[in-house]
Amino acid sequence: MPHRERYLFICTNRRPDDHPKGSCAQKGSEELVTKLKAALVARGAAARVRACTSSCLDLCEIGASIVQEPEHVAYGHVTLADVDAIADAVVKGEVVERLVVFGSKKAEG
Ligand code: FES
Questions:
Q1: Rounded to an integer, what distance in angstroms lies between the CA atom of residue 13 and that of residue 83?
Q2: CA gyration radius for the chain?
Q3: Which pLDDT does position 47 carry in this prediction?
Q4: What is the CA(73)–ligand 1 centre distance, in A?
Q5: How far is Cα 84 from Cα 67, in angstroms, rounded to an integer?
Q6: Closest CA to 79 of 36, 44, 42
Q7: Of residues 48, 57, 101, the one with CA closest to residue 77
Q8: What is residue 44's three-state secondary structure?
Q9: What is the enclosing helix (H) or strand (E) of 37?
């Protein structure tokens, strides 16, 4: 398979339920991976955009967390309700500003 134009790295790290940092898997990130993959297929974009599982992105407290490359933005507090917005944006090379916690061009500008 070719190198993709864009990647979504979805943290699926899981910690014990009583761990103070929490973890993205506890917040539903494993299902996010499944839904994002399906959303990319539905948009005919799976050959251009890849949704991958990731280990801890060190954004645990604001999980579920996703990093989009090459835009180099981190999304926080992502839920299943955000899947369509993320998929719509990434296929256009855009980001969902309301979910950005780090790396927003608007925030840096
Ligand atoms: S557990 Fe997901 S960012 Fe750390």
A1: 19
A2: 13
A3: 96
A4: 15
A5: 16
A6: 36
A7: 101
A8: coil
A9: helix 29-42
Q: What is the pLDDT of residues 40-67, one digit of tens each?
A: 999 999 999 999 999 999 999 999 999 9
Q: pTM (2 decimals)?
A: 0.93
Measured from CB, residues less than 6 Å from any atom of ligand 1 are: 11, 13, 23-24, 56-60, 63, 65
| CA torsion angle 36 30 54 5 (round to 10) | -10
Separation CA 49–CA 59 (nearest Å): 23
Nearest to 68 by CA among 36, 24, 106, 42: 36
> How far, in Å, from the CA of 41 to the mean position of ligand 1?
26
Please give the domain boundaries of the chain with CATH numbers for all domains: 6-63+73-94 (3.40.30.10)
Look-up of token digits 């180099």: 72
Give the residue, 17 or 108, on which the prediction is more confident: 17
Q: In this predicted structure, what is the pLDDT of residue 107?
A: 43
Report the half-sphere exposure of 4 (CA within 13 A, side-chain side): 19
